[in-house]
From TrEMBL:
It catalyses: 4-amino-4-deoxychorismate = 4-aminobenzoate + pyruvate + H(+). It comes from Pseudomonas mercuritolerans. This is Aminodeoxychorismate lyase. Its EC number is 4.1.3.38. The gene is pabC. PANTHER family: AMINO-ACID AMINOTRANSFERASE, AMINODEOXYCHORISMATE LYASE.
Amino acid sequence: MDSWVDGQPADALSLKDRGLAYGDGLFETIAVRSGQPVLLDRHLMRLADGCARLAIATDLELVRHELLSYAAAMGEGVLKLILTRGDGLRGYAPDPAAQGRRILQGNPPAAYPATHAEHGIRLFPCNTRLSTQPLLAGLKHLNRLEQVLARAEWQDSEHAEGLMLDQTGRVVEGVYSNIFLVRDGGLITPDLKRCGVAGVMRAEILFQAESLAIPTQIADISLEQLQWADEVFVCNSVYGVWPVRACAALSWPVGPLTRKLQTIARALLDA
Ligand SMILES: C=C(O[C@@H]1C=C(C(=O)O)C=C[C@H]1N)C(=O)O
Ligand SMILES: Cc1ncc(COP(=O)(O)O)c(C=O)c1O
């Protein structure tokens, strides 16, 4: 399907776009099932937070309308929205009058091996560490060089995802996922106030767990805590939940709470 720029079919973009020049923008990667964007409200909430924190001007109702129209035309697949600050001249200073540029791209459904979800995955222990930047923490902004470096650390198919730590060695997230630990029947996921992307699926899992009276905790997590977890899983808004079986010398069973939340995520993504 053709990409759209500001609501119109397009196959080119201005060379002055600040997304290209400085990574000055945000993105959302959204699963589309039966013509509907999955977890749309959560994606729009994160986008609105990003626009407010970066002071990018955009009409979020128009964005919603375009996402719905584009998804309806796509049917099935993965829809990527890139929202940049629009054009700029040389120099970092943003134009206060700039209007955000909306780019929509349709991709086929993700084709991950079924074994990732069924039997679990191995995480590659990435050497690339995440930098601390509270002003950007949680946002899905366009500056993703840390993830690019981390993902380039392994090429084998034995590892489906990587584990990323911050500068002090705290567990933060996967390269393209968030991480959860199960301990004594409850969930723990890293606090993302210093770095990391606050995933849409992470938010949904926390919500679903709370409505099932499963205790949840958002906290700093050490490698030692990871070692003592009863179960570990990763999640994102495209594949849902993958159990984690191993990371370097650590290993975990695929447990019942992971399976329960995986079933809930799958129901959302298969709807
Ligand atoms: C990096 C992108 O999006 C992330 C990657 C995946 C995936 O590969 O499963 C899913 C969700 C996204 N947060 C992208 O370029 O779309
Ligand atoms: C660095 C990072 N963390 C977490 C996620 C998961 O986010 P979501 O659940 O919104 O897909 C992603 C998605 O790509 C990501 O790139």
